[in-house]
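Following up on my earlier thread - several people asked me to post the actual chain instead of describing it. Fair enough. Here it is, all 130 residues.
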Amino acid sequence: MKADLVQALTELPNDREIPGLLSEIDGLAKRSGLDVKRFQPLPESLDEYYAEVPVQIVMSGSYHEVAIFFDRVRRMNRIVSIEDIEITDPVLTGTETKLTVSGKVTTVRFLTEEELTASRAQADGKKRRE
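Reply from S.P.:
Thanks for posting it. Predicted structure:
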């Protein structure tokens, strides 16, 4: 179990690492040849021990460039998912079709001690009311 915890700790960024991780994802999109039109952090959603950190992304590029980006995200040594993918607006430019791709890139982070304490207090208060 300790080995599993150590592995999870390496895959879940802490609060201080989130900006760097988001910057890395943005860089992966650009290095894949995509034109990033929007990269907008969304509100976090808290769970018992972790928080989901979603980012709305809109980018354009070829199908091949999108596939390269998805593969590079998959190979990251952090837990990152890409959800709610929508592919629209195909435009033929020369011999290549450019697509607009939008979706949500989500990573997770462990809650800080303060957040854990607040979460436990909130859960205890809810149990008392029930």
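The first helix runs from residue 2 to 11. That should answer part of your original question.
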